[in-house]
Amino acid sequence: MNSMTPYTPGLKRLRAFDTVVRARSGLAAAAELRVSQPAIAYSLDQLERELGLRLLERRASGSFATGDGVAFFNRTRRFLDQIGEAVRDTLAASGEPPQKAESIISKLRDTQIAALIAIWRAGGFRAAARRLSVAEPTLQRPARELERLLRVGLYRRTAAGVEVNPVGAELARRLALALGEIHSGMEEIGALRANERASLRVGVLALSPRVILAEGLGSLLGGLPAQRVDIVEGSYEDHAASIRAGTIDVIFGALRSPPLFRDLVEEPLLEDPYAIVCRVGHPLATADRPLTADLLAYEFILPTTGLPRRVTLDAFFKSHGMASNARVETSCLPTTIALLKASDRLALLSRWHADLDNRDELVCLDSVNVPHLPRFVGLTTRADWLPTPFQATFLAMTRKAAAKWVATKPTRSSKPRRQGVVPRASSAPRTGRNTRVAPIR
């Protein structure tokens, strides 16, 4: 079955490799996995052929991992550990005895994992079969085998067809993250297939200071013409779901403090307070210290209800007894910028976004104070994420770019308290200060 995930070696071969490295013996590995020694040797030979690299040195005293083998073993161990945790948690959530976990894990097959992930990502059996260009019964067979193996329901029938239920969705998410470890390991040892390259997927939030992101990426890609970076703009909620599903690696933008999920960590790079903004040449831009009362003569562009900017602006209006005169409400930042430039309207934006990304077009009205909780821009990642050297270099370059701009234009509030760390790469030196922004009290 074709998988909707990047190519990964077979589960049987990965188990054999992991066991041989730990046992330092093909014979001991065969005994642990309850297979013949020739079967272990065949699996290892096929794995090395698939990767095009030598992972083990066979000596009279045993089998030992090469340099590439050590790097790939670290990822393989994380992969198997995450699969084990996912299975055990699935059993526990469904009231099944945890003693069954090891037996189930040993019987898991690649096609079962691939089927569940494909159904989860496509939204149902029918859509997954269509994307994979297979008959629906071909997909159902391994999907139902996994359900029977676990003795836990993973699917539910809806008016649109059969899809994963919440238990199946969480298991699929965690299995997909586990598979990502193998792909990262292949990248680290240079074993990516011809049509795959070292990659980084960044989710960018609205109002992020893009100059900082652009400088970080420029430094990253300057000497690496073959590498790939995908940048996707979206809402915080969408990006939080994507990073937990492994479809993006890091979020760049305003931190939520605390993050939406417990398994996410945040690293603040700079403080980015809100400001009332107008176009260059606006009457208030040339006025001598305009005050709050001066704003009444101008129409505001309102952010969509529920956005942090809208909450702040509503509180600002209420505290000054101002009634909103807005006739435009939008969550689309380019639309907001265009309206500002084309009229005398006002809007609430982030100071860094206005000063860095639109400094020739927008002006912050610094004399008007807009009270709000501290707001920081930074990086959000999964707590257990182990970045590849390429990804870790991006983090370091982005930190450096942010530090440069902070040094030239310091913000006005105090730094957040240090709390937690963002993970570092498996084989790259740690750079910069990794902190998680303290929760807002």
- Stretches where pLDDT is under 50 for at least 5 consecutive residues are 410-421, 427-441
Overall shape = elongated
E-strand count: 14
State the domain count: 3
The biggest sheet amounts to: 5 strands, mixed
The CATH H-level homologous superfamily of the largest domain: Winged helix-like DNA-binding domain superfamily/Winged helix DNA-binding domain
Rg, alpha carbons: 26 Å
Q: Indicate the CATH class of the largest domain.
A: Mainly Alpha
The helix/strand class is alpha/beta
Q: Which oligomeric form is depicted? A: single chain
Molecular structure report:
The protein has 441 residues and is α/β, with parallel strands linked by helices. 46% of the residues lie in helices and 15% in strands. The protein contains 16 helices and 14 strands. It has helices at residues 11-23, 26-33, 37-51, 67-93, 101-107, 110-122, 125-132, 136-150, 166-188, 210-221, 236-245, 283-286, 308-319, 333-342, 351-357, 389-408, and strands spanning 56-59, 62-65, 155-158, 161-164, 199-204, 228-233, 250-254, 264-271, 274-279, 300-302, 328-329, 346-350, 362-364, 376-382. The strands form 4 sheets. The chain has a 5-stranded mixed sheet, sandwiched between helices. A 5-stranded mixed sheet has the order 11-10-12-9-13. Strand 3 (155-158) and strand 4 form a beta hairpin. Helix 10 crosses helix 16. The model is unreliable at 410-421 and 427-441 (pLDDT under 50).
